[in-house]
Amino acid sequence: MQQSVFLLLGSNRGDREQNLLKSCAGIKRSIGDILKTSPVYETEPWGFTDSIPFYNQALEVGTSLSPEEVLHEIHRIESELGRVRELRGCEPEGSCSSETYSSRTIDIDILFYSSRILFTDELMIPHPRLHERRFTLLPLNEIAPDFVHPVYRRAVSELLRNCTDTGEVNRVSL
């Protein structure tokens, strides 16, 4: 059965636009059909300092894969694009040490998998910090403003209105 999975792509190393395009090709090839894509946004790094901003884009993908299978395919796509994944130190409530944030050729996060709630050692759905990040909420709002967060029971558009993050997030014309 097809499920909707919402993903956020991010890149601030190498050819950022090509990294997003290659990620989309890999997602279509191994995860499912891309149903919606947001515009690309240029955003300042969140949780660390870097002089190179990120390109971010949200996608809705139709998939028949399980959440764990989607995560496996994401890791494979990231690896193919040169991402070196470091061990992360995240707590179940979603708090991560600042060392986990760094520059990267590509980062693909699962934001939502339909309305499922899943918290394991490897995977947290919905993404535990999406409601705190304008760089996530703004592109997600472009494709799913009425989608209701299954934990907070608020629409994406409401989460965006209430977000206190003041980081720069600007739409890019590509």
Order of helices and strands: EHEEEHEEEHHE
Q: Tell me how many strands there are.
A: 8
Ranges where pLDDT stays below 50 over 5 or more residues in a row are 91-99
Kindly name the structural category: alpha+beta
User: If you compute it from the alpha carbons, what radius of gyration comes out, rounded to the nearest whole angstrom?
Assistant: 15 Å
Mean pLDDT: 88
Distance between the termini: 34 Å
| Most strands sheet | 6 strands, antiparallel
**Share in β-strands:** 15-25%
Count of folded domains = 1
> What sort of overall outline do the alpha carbons produce when their principal axes are compared?
globular
> Which percent range fits the helix content?
25-40%
User: Which CATH first-tier class would you pick?
Assistant: Alpha Beta
Summarize the structure in words.
- The structure is a single chain.
- With 174 residues, this protein is α+β, with helices and mostly antiparallel strands.
- It has a single domain (3-171), classed as Alpha-Beta Plaits.
- It has helices at 16-30, 67-80, 134-143, 156-162, and strands at 3-11, 32-37, 41-43, 54-63, 107-113, 118-119, 124-125, 169-171.
- The strands form 2 sheets. Strands 1, 2, 3, 4, 5 and 8 form a 6-stranded antiparallel beta sheet that branches. The chain has a two-stranded antiparallel ribbon with strand order 6-7.
- It is globular.
- The protein starts with a strand and ends with a strand.
- Mean pLDDT is 88; it is low at 91-99.
